[in-house]
Amino acid sequence: MLGEGLLKGLAETARNFAGSFVSKERLTTVQYPEERHPLPEASRNFPFLVYDGADWEAGLRCVACQICEKECPPKCIYIEKSKDKKPDYAGKLQIYPTQFDIDISVCMSCQICVEVCPFEAIKMDNEFELATDDRFGGLLQDRKQLAKPNEYYHKIHPTEAAEVDARLAEEKAKVEEKARAAAVAAAAKAAAAAPKPAEGAQPQ
Amino acid sequence: MTNTLDQIFVLLKHWIIGFLPVWLQPIVAALLSVVAILAVFPGLFAISVLLERKGLGRMQNRIGPNRVGPLGVLQPVADGIKALIKEDVIPYSADHVVHFLAPVMLVVVVFMGYAVLPMGRNMTFVPMDAGLLFYFAMGASAELTVFMAGWSSRNKYSLLGAMRAVAQMISYEVPLLMSSVVIVMMTGSLSLDKIVEVQNQYTWGLPHWFVFTPMGFAAFVMFAIAATAETNRSPFDLPEGESELVAGYFTEYSGFKFAEFFLGEYVAMLSISGLGATLFLGGWSAPLAILNVVPSWFWFFAKIMTWICFYIWMRGTFPRLRQDQLMNFAWKFVLPMTLLNLLVAGLWRFMGEGFLRWVVCSAILLSAYIIGGRIGMRSKKFGPRSYRYAE
């Protein structure tokens, strides 16, 4: 009969209306600022700079090689090199950035800077609540705002951070091995060089 | 006591104008009524917008607005402030005068309809003998303002929306009038006060509402359909179909003029609900004789709000009709049914008192409904859409 479907439809919406008051499964709304879904581990947004240890300025892994600055498609990174040097994680003396700015209003979160960085210094953050009422200053982040500890990196991307740490440890071990080998070689050389004058003196 | 409460607004008005000189009294009395109407119905508009947003949300298993104030009850206030502080943009090539006049006229015309609605015992602003006629004259003027808005905007979406609105509103004006004529035939009066008086009688504690008679019920259903189409409500919201026409005839309106259209639409909805309640649901009369202790104006507003809730329910349920379905439904189903209903009303009158006329009239209407529905369903016009060009 005409109108049967209309009544069926009205009954359905009425059921939904009443159901939304009694059953929790029906109301799927997550009321965002108060409650939120946990972010998936793979979620990523703008880049940040990783530092080791307690002091952010001393621990920055970045060596101001400027590869990311050159590779950045929208050119949102600005780096200034330092004149002096400081030791990196392996103890080697490196220059460091005196200025490292990322304009997140320009950044497109393409992750190319992360992929090109040979020093594991820049990584993707999952912070997305970066809205500000200061259009120009608020969206230009300097190195202090960008610097975040390695522990934070472990917290947001645990698997990836563990891999990075393993790789860095391996490299550090290699460097140390090399240094030790070099030291041993130098010592051997020195040891070899030391008796030489004696040998040379022998025929005299 | 009951009587005082029932007449409290009338007594209040008389008390206020008692302080004034005699020559000023009629003017101030009129002004007071106007102010009351202008204060109460926009208030109800705010309530119904909130109800709509919350109710629709619940029907779609959402929460609805819940940020402004406790449970979101201040949402209409926030909406109002937002509309007021927005920039008022007038398109460069628009007809400025008509563009400005359209929303103003809509609001004026829509509020004029309230002049004849009896909102309680002795609470009609203008107790006019031809009240129903006046109401429909005002209702028809709303179509003009809609077309003014669409035409003056110089926007194809506006114009399309206005064209659809005019076609739809004129088509449904006919069944709307025809279904009301049944009530006029039954009461023999165009005065809405008289219509309510006739319904305000009780047999065994039950009211003599026209909705409880066969042709009254048929007319009620037809009136409800036509009223939905008249006020451009879902499922008949083609003139402002968001998915196809941006916002229809008020696409080019912003700021307070947009709010005026919004207000006009809801106030028209409230007013046509008021008319429907007056014609079929006994206006301000109580649903049971013992409930007459409750003030009459309470019943009027309760009926309006019930009607509004039903509108919201329909909006949450039905998808929008297509233009040809809309027209076919109006001209091929609703109009013949209302014409038949007129005949049945005459038959009812001439069959005299007794049980027989109930059976005969109900049987005629029910069979016409079933046969009409069968024919309508069988014809291709109501069937699923065939995509001739967009395959």
Structure, explained:
The complex is a heterodimer of chains A (204) and B (391). Chain A is of the alpha+beta class and 204 residues long. Chain A has a domain at 47-156: Alpha-Beta Plaits. Helix content of chain A is 43%, strand content 17%. Chain A is built from 8 helices and 6 strands, in the order αβααββαββαβααα. Chain A has a 3-stranded mixed sheet. Chain A has a 3-stranded antiparallel sheet with strand order 2-3-5. The model of chain A has no long low-confidence stretch (mean pLDDT 84). Chain B starts with a helix and ends in a 13-residue tail after the last helix. In chain B, helix 5 (96-112) runs parallel beside helix 11 (255-280), helix 6 runs antiparallel to helix 7 (156-187) and helix 11 (255-280) crosses helix 12 (296-317). Chain B is mostly helical and 391 residues long. In chain B, strands 1-2 form a two-stranded antiparallel sheet. Chain B has one domain (73-382). Classes of the chains: A alpha+beta (204), B mainly alpha (391). Chain A binds chain B through residues 1-3, 6, 9-10, 12-14, 16-17, 19-21, 26-29, 31, and chain B through 55, 58-63, 66, 313-314, 316-318, 369-370, 372-374, 376-377.
